[in-house]
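The following block was generated as part of the benchmark described in Methods. Ligand: 4'-phosphopantetheine.
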Amino acid sequence: MRIAVVPGSFDPVTLGHLDVIGRTAKLFDHVFVVVTHNPGKSALLAVDERVRLIDESLADVGIHGVQVDSWSEGLLVDYCRRVGAEAIVKGLRSATDAAYETPMALVNRDLAGVETLFLVAEPTTSHVSSSLVRQVASLGGDVSPYVPRAVVAALQPEGPIRG
Ligand code: PNS
């Protein structure tokens, strides 16, 4: 049984995240998507809401065999040990992502021998980030090209401002 963890802040989940989760589900027997606390970021959505939005979005696009969870009790590698995961999977959109992700991957391997695998982001979503989505939504722009329907409804219940 090969188990992978796809971790992230998912604040909110984007179409890029869903692509990486779906591709990971094809490679592993079981996938845990885990919403973790990033001490370097201040959050827009509550962790429970982020979990709900990922759950709904996976069902909506027909990605099955994935369990969505949250983790705030310590290191990501502690969660990996708990669920028996041998790999962490993350998407890479750019060289900037690689520079940000590489030290974390090495520390996670030092801490617990857990390997990190990177999937190259699908080009149609490689410019999409949760932080840009938060900014566009907060200023009334249309985020529907970037996020699943459930997230559009959560961030813009009355629809985007149209000029
Ligand atoms: O989506 P993000 O914010 O880029 O994800 C970063 C995340 C949440 C995966 C990272 O901050 C993390 O692993 N946090 C859990 C705490 C931890 O294990 N820190 C040490 C990582 S080397």
